[in-house]
Amino acid sequence: MTWTLLTEPQTHRGQRQWMVDPAHSRAEFTVANFGRTVHGRAPIRDGRLTTGPDGAPEKATGTVDLGAIDTTHAKRDRDLRGRRLLDLDRHPLMAFTTEDITDTAGEWRVVGTVRVRGRRAELVCTVSKFVLGPGDTVRLVAHAVLDRREIGIRAPELMIGRYIAIELNVLLRPESQAR
Predict the structure, then answer these.
(1) What is the pTM of this model?
(2) pLDDT tens digit sequence for 52-108
(3) Does residue 2 have a pLDDT over 60?
(4) Cα-based distances in Å from 135 to 32, 61, 131, 168
């Protein structure tokens, strides 16, 4: 990826703040459940990407509202709210923060900390798609895999797969446009 894309147009030199547009962004996940693949989604509440003078990403934060999780199956969604699973009444948000973003073979490797269920775990994301859009916007797609055991979800793997695949599809706007 070309870091300098985040400094275009040329009138925007220096450090920039990019804000997630929640209305045009989403978080999706897949996980095995009794031998089937379950798909779900949750809204992205907010996020920020800070770039340096050269356009290279330096820091990123984001929050997903797991309290609004939707797997299109009401009973499963209620089960996910429970203390044995996501404990959403006490911990409705998933928060991510990083200051470790590197360019590797045309992708961004983003290593950070995710907080889910009141626990912290390392999460490695790969930003595999990056597109400049209209009105000085940027669209990016990131993928990560979370080991549910690292956030304290204990269940037989037949019931719930060990790994949760996460995809973030995010629209970023310069901070000046996001207000």
Answers:
(1) 0.89
(2) 888 889 999 999 999 999 999 999 999 999 999 999 999 999 999 999 999 888 899
(3) no
(4) 39, 23, 12, 21
Q: Which long-range contacts (CB under 8 A, 24 or more apart) does 114-122 make?
A: 114/146, 114/151, 116/66, 116/86, 116/91, 116/146, 116/151, 117/86, 117/87, 117/91, 117/151, 117/152, 117/153, 118/87, 118/90, 118/91, 119/150, 119/151, 119/152, 121/146, 121/147, 121/150, 121/151, 122/150
> Three-class SS of residue 71?
coil
Are 167 and 143 within 8 A, CB to CB?
Answer: yes
Task: List, for residues 124-165, the tens digit of each pLDDT value.
Answer: 999 988 888 888 899 999 999 999 999 999 888 888 999 999
Alpha helices in the chain, H assignment, sequence order: 74-81, 175-178
DSSP state of 151: G
CA atoms within 13 A on the CB side of 83: 0
